[in-house]
Amino acid sequence: MVSSSEYGSHTWELSLTVDHQHENVEKEFSLQVTGNLHVGGLMLKLVEQIKIAQDWSDYAFWWEQKKCWLLKTHWTLDKCGVQADAKLIFTTQHKMLRLRLPSMKTVRLKVSFSSMVFRAVSDICKTLNIRRSEELSLLKQSEGTLKKKKKKDKNSKELVTEDILDLCNSPVSSGLPANPGLYSKTMTPIYDPVSGSPASSTITWFSDGSLTEQSCSILALSHPNCSPETLAEMYQPRTLADKAKLNAGWLDSSRSLMEQGVQEEDQLLLRFKYYTFFDLNPKYDAVRINQIYEQARWAILLEEIDCTEEEMLIFAALQAQYHVSKLSLSSETQDSTCESEVDEVEAALSNLEVTLEGGNKSNILEDITDIPKLADNLKLIRPKKLALKAIKTYWFVFRDTSISYFKTKESAQGEPIEKLNLKGCEVVPDVNVAAKKFGIKLLIPVADGMNEVYLRCDNEDQYARWMAACVLASKGRTMADSSYQPEVQKILSFLQMKNWTMCSQASSEPETVDMKPECFVSPRYTKKFKSKQLTARILEAHQNVSQMSLVEAKLRFIQAWQSLPEFGLSYYIVRFKGSKKDDVLGVSYNRLIRIDMATGDPITTWRFSNMKQWNVNWEIRQVAIEFDQNVSIAFTCLSADCKIIHEYIGGYIFLSTRSKDHNDTLDEELFHKLTGGQE
């Protein structure tokens, strides 16, 4: 037998590779080590052996076979599990990475390949002057979305050929801490809240110095659209299965880039993963607002989200207005912004804030004692009886979170024909302003699926009041909630944009807008209309938005995007426990939706507010969730790793804990507790 002291004194040979850029200098080394040598001591011995005078502080050991970093320098080799067969690479932790932003602009910067992705994204966002980094993440483009591009690579004029914005010398990219002043709410504004351009007098004081004013403008301002030919060559999802491919490549936020196979100079997509845009402010968030606008714009153009022809023309008109405003601004001398203009933008902005089951709770006593109600004659349509006689007028009463309807107004004192509880239901707009159609589609959860009910309103005002009430009730809130009136105004504002046919002003001449109309709509509508027809229709829709500033046009675009029924849904193909066929699972900021893969119809909705717990069986890769009233579901994910869905659920719950009163620092530990899992 060999004593422990004798065993500890025995040395063994360890092979090490040094990843340096010096030519004619050895990169392979063998050191005699013992198991009780700590990682820091191994670094010291290796650097002494290399004999190159340079800063090695950013270097660490990467264990190739185990795909992990040895970052705990006080741990011994025995504790790390390192033996003679290990291949350790001594390499830099910060490496160059190419990021394609939502605006399709590619930036090149140094990123930590050893930090968890959550922390790496935070550092990236500080470099780019984007607040609220927790809303973004990194995405690997899946093979399925690249096929169309590869086929046409020879003839296509890719957006990738544009100049890459190189930010490799920024302080954050070099691993230095960023100045937190950018994140202070009390600081001097660093962006013009009307034009969105950097305020040059303050940009150097309050930013972290990583962006020059020119670079800041590139990221904060939108640029001319790509050609229709380039747009046609990009990946466009046609089915729910295609849309599921778009969300398959999210990186694990609790692991590093190197651990997930990302190499130096690789290209990843930086995208808004969570659709809860908290505390938007044009005075500090010009880059963030522009990138949200761009992500929304490309989602519309590539038909990643469905919209009607009427809505597509509104999006086209807002894009056109943005470019017209930008051209007019560039040709004029900029005057300082007066307070009234700032107030108008902030008033418009208040309608755009999206929080998870949030709302101002300052009027709690009023909510308890005085809950408003709605009472009107509305038309009721049952989907199983689509004949004309199935449309009947009833007296509807909306109280709390329920709708009751009666045969007449006089009979409202008695028992209703039916009472519909809207808590947890899906609310889908069914509107055509030109045709004077103002409908509300309600999908109400029942034991065996969803009960469909259609309500038809008489006019815009009635529709806005009832639609806002339905939206709040679906989230478990009443009309006494402080968000009710802003919701009504937001709906009316959107309807007003659609109502261009009622405008008597003469439309602008096509020559006044020097841009191709095909650049502002998806290829489907380019094929449907001739260029002159499309120009005329866009200019007609443009009349209602022609007075908007740069930032307001983008905010209205985001608002219209948020109003679409499919907004915020990320799709995955799953197989539910006990089912013999595949379904699509839609993950949103406040609910999960089971969708029929063939028809696209929602089957069941489960709200996060009713969720008791969820867990993952990592052996069989199955997600199990328990809800109130003894409802439980379980499913395996077929289109992506189940960790992605697990992280989505935990991430949205984490974001719901944010508050304007505590927005200085993020509880990173809580995020990893909710999203990390134990594999």
From TrEMBL:
A GO cellular component entry from the record: focal adhesion
Q: Report the principal subcellular site.
A: other
Q: Which Gene3D superfamilies match?
A: Phosphatidylinositol 3-kinase Catalytic Subunit, Chain A, domain 1, Pleckstrin-homology domain (PH domain)/Phosphotyrosine-binding domain (PTB)
Keywords carried by this UniProt record: Cell adhesion, Cell junction, Cell projection
Q: Cellular location of this protein?
A: Cell junction; Cell projection
Record-annotated PH domain positions: 379-475
Single GO term (MF): integrin binding
Q: Which Pfam families match?
A: FERM_M, Kindlin_2_N
Task: List the InterPro entries hit by this protein, alphabetically.
Answer: Band_41_domain, FERM_2, FERM_central, Kindlin/fermitin, Kindlin_2_N, PH-like_dom_sf, PH_domain, PH_Kindlin/fermitin
Its BP terms in the Gene Ontology are: cell-matrix adhesion; integrin-mediated signaling pathway
Sequence similarity: Belongs to the kindlin family.
Q: Which PANTHER family match?
A: FERMITIN 2-RELATED, FERMITIN FAMILY HOMOLOG 1
What protein am I looking at?
FERM1 protein
Gene that this polypeptide is encoded by:
Fermt1
